[in-house]
Automatic annotation (TrEMBL):
GO biological process: lysyl-tRNA aminoacylation
Highest classification ranks of the organism: Archaea, Methanobacteriati, Methanobacteriota, Stenosarchaea group, Methanomicrobia
UniProt cross-references to Gene3D superfamilies, sorted A to Z: 1.10.10.350, 1.10.10.770, HUPs (3.40.50.620), Lysine tRNA ligase, stem contact fold domain (6.10.20.10)
Transmembrane regions: none
Entry protein name: Lysine--tRNA ligase
Major localisation: cytoplasm
InterPro entries to which the protein is assigned, alphabetical: aa-tRNA-synth_I_codon-bd_sub2, aa-tRNA-synth_I_CS, aa_tRNA-synth_I_cd-bd_sf, Lys-tRNA-ligase, Lys-tRNA-ligase_SC_fold, Rossmann-like_a/b/a_fold
Length: 530
């Protein structure tokens, strides 16, 4: 069976059939916390761009922040003081924390930092700056002159007739500062000005250069023409029949004389069982928070492994460990297809850290060392992992520490106890014999790996093995008659060290602890009497 071609390469081939030179664009409105659902659009654009470059295209990649969009409402994460700013462009509203230039930068700045962390480096445009620099002036003139033609396209495509006062351009009121409360009353193409009346009672004249913005269904196709966009991903909401891409295709062709970009339609990322992520509803995991807990290449992998048209279910609790495991297995496998290799290749990006330490193993090491980096490094060295890139190990340690604090369920957490708990009094004679025998074997052994520990415990089931013979002798029974249940042995280990009946993967766990500590702890637990 032939290898499957990755979806990014399929898209690149389709795009290259239309020409060699391309501009890949993506954009998000920074009205709230930019979340992992939004990240699907940017990663999709990035891998399409990379696939084009890999195939020899002359490609550029840009990101447009829709900073001139109005604030729609007072979102759950805002205080009521923002009620007066509803309707104003995001770039003209005060920053919620007071530390950024404006409202849009408050959400945009951490997002752009996250992009860099993910190895994504588009040229960034801000819509307010594009409007104020005059990039849209020609499109505004054409839209004002051809207002009725645009209205006819919108009615034909969407089935909705624009209201009588509708206009493709929304002036920003010079009095109240709002962009969605004005009505155009006239315009002067030579002076490049637009007259308006506002519902606040003010009338005035604004410049086409930054004095307002095109409505979304006209702004989008105007942007394609003004910037030369030829490829763009967007959510399924824009792709519906009569939606903004549908109307945009006709508007850009008939009004602006340009072809609509190649569309890449993507489905939503669902948060656990809570549904689609949305900044306005608060159902989000912010991208900044996610990068605190997931290695960036794994986050890229989450999106890259799934075709854009299929939804992704994401849960940052235990299922996250399964996702990381899956990536690590694929990454280290010697039996990968060319499709698998392509996924790994696209998941990597320049500057992204990678270590050979499994994420799940680090959750054990981190908790054994109680987060102490020097102790963690010592355990990592003893386990035989490569420690040459301390920066990457520290990133992984930070990811794991944040995951344990922010998302890990209680049953994934543990702490090594300072001494023997009273629960050790409940150990059975069989468990005590095991702990004593286990300690004796450890005392005369060299350093053991996680696999060594695992195999040693399980050897107790084999009649005639050293551990089996020692346990039988301690209990004064024949090895043949000794009934061994490894679950009871592991339970004895966890009670001795963690004061709980279960714990992390035993091999990794035991190899993360000092052997001398284990010998003393197991003997103390075996001898413990209240």
């Amino acid at each position: 069976m032939a290898d499957i071609t990755h979806w990014a390469d399929v898209i690149a081939d389709e795009v290259l059939a239309k020409g060699k030179k391309h501009l890949v664009a993506t954009g998000i409105t920074p009205s709230g916390h930019i979340h992992i659902g939004n990240m699907r659009e940017v990663v999709t654009a990035d891998v399409a761009y990379r696939a084009l470059i890999d195939k020899g295209a002359e490609a550029e990649f840009i990101y447009i922040a829709d900073t001139y969009d109005p604030l729609r409402k007072v979102y759950p994460f805002l205080d009521e003081s923002y009620a007066e700013h509803v309707g104003k462009p995001l770039s003209e509203i005060p920053c919620p924390c007071g530390e950024h230039k404006n409202y849009s930068e408050h959400f945009l700045e951490p997002f752009l930092g996250a992009l860099d962390h993910l190895g994504i480096h588009p040229k960034v445009y801000r819509a307010d700056e594009l409007y104020k620099e005059g990039v849209y002036v020609e499109a505004i003139k054409q839209a004002l002159v051809k207002k009725d033609e645009i209205a006819e396209i919108l009615q034909k495509r969407s089935g909705k007739t624009p209201v009588e006062t509708w206009n493709p351009f929304n002036p920003i009121c010079l009095e109240c500062g709002k962009v969605n409360t004005t009505i155009v009353t006239g315009f002067d193409l030579d002076a490049e000005t637009v007259d308006y009346d506002c519902s606040c009672g003010h009338s005035g004249t604004v410049s086409m250069k930054g004095g307002g913005k095109l409505t979304w269904r006209v702004d989008w196709p105007a942007r394609w023409k003004a910037l030369g966009v030829s490829v763009e991903p967007f959510g399924k909401d824009h792709a519906s029949r009569g939606g903004s891409y549908d109307t945009g295709q006709d508007i850009v062709k008939e009004i602006f004389g340009y072809d609509a970009p190649h569309p890449i339609v993507y489905e939503w990322i669902m948060l656990g069982q809570k549904g689609a992520m949305s900044s306005s509803t608060g159902v989000v995991v912010s991208i900044a928070d996610m990068l605190k807990v997931v290695p960036p290449e794994v986050l890229r992998y989450l999106i890259i492994r799934t075709k854009p048209e299929k939804h992704i279910r994401f849960d940052p609790a235990l299922p996250l460990l399964t996702l990381v495991d899956e990536f690590e297995r694929l990454h280290s496998s010697d039996n990968t297809t060319s499709y698998d290799k392509r996924i790994i290749e696209l998941s990597h990006a320049a500057g992204l850290c990678h270590t050979d330490i499994p994420f799940k193993h680090m959750t054990t090491i981190y908790q054994v060392a109680a987060g102490d980096f020097d102790k963690i490094l010592k355990i990592v060295k003893r386990a035989g992992y490569d420690t040459s890139n301390e920066k990457c190990i520290r990133e992984l340690v930070d990811n794991v520490g944040n995951w344990l604090e922010m998302y890990a369920p209680d049953n994934a957490k543990f702490s090594v106890q300072e001494g023997i708990s009273v629960n050790a009094a409940n150990l059975t004679p069989f468990q005590r014999a095991f702990l004593t025998s286990f300690s004796d074997i450890l005392e005369k052994s060299g350093e053991l790996t996680g696999e060594d520990y695992h195999n040693l415990v399980y050897s107790s089931k084999e009649a005639g093995s050293e551990l089996n013979t020692m346990i039988a002798a301690a209990m004064d029974v024949s090895p043949e008659s000794l009934e061994v249940n490894p679950k009871e042995l592991f339970k004895a280990v966890y009670i001795s060290v963690l004061d709980q009946a279960s714990g992390p993967k035993a091999g990794w766990f035991l190899s993360s602890l000092e052997k001398d500590f284990l010998i003393k702890r197991f003997r103390d637990a075996a001898a413990y009497r209240p």
